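tool_call predict_complex ligand=nicotinamide-adenine-dinucleotide
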Amino acid sequence: MTPGVDEQAAAELASALQAAARIVVFTGAGVSTDCGIPDFRSPTGIWQDNKPISFQEFMASEEMRREAWRRKFAIQPSFEAAERDGVKKSPAHSAIRTLYETGRVSAVITQNIDNLHQASGIPADDVVELHGNGSYAACLDCGTRHELPFIRERFDDAGGPPPCTACGGTLKTATISFGQSMPQEEMLRAQAETLACDLFLALGSSLVVHPAATLPALAAQNGARLAIVNREETPLDGHAEIVVRGDIGVAFRPWLSARAR
Ligand code: NAD
Ligand code: ZN
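tool_result ok
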């Protein structure tokens, strides 16, 4: 019995995972909800309280930059707790790592900025971060990396973020905001991996954020099998060979227990 998901679909997922030679795992905020980090679009998601600050708004005013950093420091404890403890209890991250350990996952392409795939044991080189990483900051002018505690200390003293220590430029978390251009190298790698796989697995994403959400469709057009696991419907369900509606952790159970036998 696989309560909470369609058993037939979960069994199809297990046999697709078994048969695949080269797998791309593509993840969204839904893989991290069990770690204590809310997603955007669920009823309990972050968007219920705060609409995101676009890149244009961030650049346009000192006040918005202060607000963006204030929000970042407000949510930071839950990200740190997820990295420290939450990820260890996350069935989704653990299933992805088990799949990765079969040697057949060429890349984990993620829209998440939470650093949790790396924290779960996937080597950073095989995690393709389409929307950057929120566990540190970078200068928008010269790219120099800055650590969050350094910025936090100055923010608390001065009521705003400090300038870049190297060039005096603007510091922002190393994430891609709405309205900001996508990281070129990561997009190229993600497209190449998508075109090279025979199974593309989309996990915990509403698949509405573009251009990231073009990747599952690209995989299917290119002849790969597409499997989608998500609690809610997605606009790409019609392109998928396998759709498991429900919890990621539960959807993997038949594959995990077949392996254990
Ligand atoms: P989203 O919030 O649009 O969609 C998440 C989807 O996951 C929802 O459809 C939800 O029903 C589903 N879901 C939640 N928990 C699940 C579970 N345990 N099992 C199965 N499904 C589950 O997220 P998105 O598609 O990633 O797009 C939102 C954007 O927000 C991304 O660009 C990402 O960068 C950013 N974001 C990241 C984080 C993070 O790093 N953890 C958190 C929130 C938002
Ligand atoms: Zn700089």
